[in-house]
Amino acid sequence: MGDINRDGLKHNEVLCAIEDVISRESINSIQLTEKNCVVTVKEKNQRDRLITVGIKIRDRSVNFVEIDKQLTNVTIKDLPYELSDSFVTTQMSQFGQVVQGSIRRGVIKDTSIENGTRYLQLKNCVPILPNKISFGKHEIRLFADNNRTSCKFCNGTDHPSFKCRDKPQQLRKCYNCHQPGHISKDCLEEVVCNYCLLAGHIKRDCEKYQDDKTRREMGEYADEIIEGRRGQSQSFDESITPCDTGIEDTYVIPKSKTLILGASNGKRLGNFSPDVINASVSGASFENIDELLNHALSVMDDTDASVEKVVICLGTNDITRNRSDPDEVNVNATSAVNCVKSRFPSAKIGLCTIIPRKGKGQSILKLNETTQSVNNFLAKLCKKDSSVSLIDTFNIFCQNGNAVRPLYDINDPSGVHISDKGVDKYIVELSSFFGNTHVVEAIVHTPALRKRNLSSNTTPSSTEKQGKHHKSI
């Protein structure tokens, strides 16, 4: 930029003077403002030559100065589309002189649609521009070069805020277990409801959430409605029969009981048979088998009933805690089996293999390797003890070395919990150990086929057509 007398000065006159110093091809533009001549060149060395040598116009020497250090490029964010450029110029003049014609509007790439950003240049800009200011009722953000914008963390001007070394490192929070330090795709813990903060279910399946939602919608009668729904659900469950054939099916529920001791996947099996007590607790493991047994006894409605069979479907949480130490899981599994045998000496024990995790990555691969190692140990344990039978659930959920995806809950990022289809497969495998035909019938979710009643208006079947044809002969 050079300070010259503009009276009658033409672009060609300036161009001829500049060509005496640098070539025409190296010049990008020549701008004549009210007081200055602004020359833009392609290369830095050409700019330095103009600053060093200068030019002669009308027998007068003209010196150039570096304009980059006098102009500040400002980016304005969050500015409403309706605000005019003249309004923006007026507001920004408090920070310096807005270069005429420098303001422009940002657009989305390859379109003419604006994105809410304005760009302008300031001369004689104040040393530090604020990060946020108000244009009337509108709060906007400012970003500038030449070290005019201070970092919001350390107030330094030699770097933007996102590159600040003093920036506090926010701990990432997992949406699966709600613990900091990792994200959901890397989570290996059990899913935790973000409403009641209990493990084993998501908000959609949360009983507390459903109750609170009913209270908000139903008002003062909500408690009566909730109580009525629960009572109706219980009576409906008690009245379900496997198949209504019109013939009264009378049988007596035996006094002997079968216990299921599991974690969250065990809870998903539900109460699928009247002589099976599902005492599963979310988060349970081989380590806390004593608490699980105490819970089972507390939920048994008939304390006089003898426990004939006990199914242990644990181990997933043990694998999570000891992913690189299968020996620790083996010790805990052996202790759990011995504890069940001492509590129910005459009971037959069914020991389920641990199902694999769905997913990819080194962490999942390591967990599944540990799972297979523990399952091999469980198989050997069952061979040595005649009172313990192996229930091979692993091979149901794993085909060709990969987890069968439809058998897992699609909404569970941890890859641990099974779907309704997985529940059906699991119960079918347990039924062979139970030896109870009612179990198999109870898990069939598909409704029975209805008998087709043909009216006179319906299309005749092939048999009817054939019969009519013979009659016509």
UniProtKB/TrEMBL annotation:
Residues 172-187 form the CCHC-type domain. It comes from the Eukaryota. The keyword Metal-binding applies. The keyword Zinc-finger applies. GO terms for biological process: activation of innate immune response. InterPro entries: SGNH_hydro, SGNH_hydro_sf, ZCCHC3, Znf_CCHC, Znf_CCHC_sf. Residues 451-473 are annotated as: Disordered. Keywords: Metal-binding, Zinc, Zinc-finger. Residues 454-464 have a biased composition (Polar residues). SMART domains: ZnF_C2HC (SM00343). GO terms for molecular function: double-stranded DNA binding; RNA binding; zinc ion binding. PANTHER family: GAG-RELATED PROTEIN, ZINC FINGER CCHC DOMAIN-CONTAINING PROTEIN 3. This is CNBP.
